[in-house]
Amino acid sequence: MELTPLKIINSLRDTDCYMQVIFSQGACYKFHLFLKSLFPNATALINGDKDHIVTLIDGFMYDINGKVDGSFYPLSDSDMALVEGWTFAGNKYLSIGECPSCEEPLLAF
């Protein structure tokens, strides 16, 4: 069986609902590195707002949602310095439910 970018992305995303959240809210560059480990010719591209990375593989752009359309650009040296520090854990928290007593959200840090 040939592993294509979409098969890998869909399989990973479908393992848990948090995969899409993690890789679209802070860890998109880490997702690129994951794809690059499987597709060594992959290239990271950044959007005009400089807040999202996609991966170019064989002429198609991908992120955790699958194929992506839009305008994305090669990363400059300053872009690389920016995105290498991006993480989900540094920006977001996962909700693990509500407190049974007060119904406040319980957050995983």
Explain what you see:
The protein is built from 4 helices and 7 strands, in the order αααβββββαββ. It has helices at 5-13, 17-24, 28-38, 77-83; strands spanning 43-47, 53-57, 60-63, 66-68, 72-74, 94-98, 105-108. Strands 4-3-2-1-5 form a 5-stranded antiparallel β-sheet. Strands 6-7 form a two-stranded antiparallel ribbon. It is globular and about 50 Å long.
Rg computed from alpha carbons, rounded to a whole number of angstroms: 16 Å
What composes the largest sheet?
A: 5 strands, antiparallel
Mean pLDDT: 87
Distance between the termini: 39 Å
Helix and strand pattern: HHHEEEEEHEE
Shape: globular
Number of helices: 4
What proportion of the residues form beta strands (DSSP E)? 25-35%
Parts with pLDDT < 50 across at least 5 consecutive residues = none
Look at the helices and sheets and give the structural class: alpha+beta
Give the strand line-up of the largest sheet. 4-3-2-1-5
Percent of residues in helices: 25-40%
Number of strands: 7
Task: Give a short overview.
The chain contains four helices and seven strands, in the order H-H-H-E-E-E-E-E-H-E-E. The protein is an alpha+beta fold.
Characteristic key phrases:
two-stranded antiparallel sheet, 32% helix, 7 strands, five-stranded antiparallel β-sheet, 109 residues, 4 helices, alpha+beta
Layout: helices, strands, pairs:
Elements: H1 5-13, H2 17-24, H3 28-38, E1 43-47, E2 53-57, E3 60-63, E4 66-68, E5 72-74, H4 77-83, E6 94-98, E7 105-108
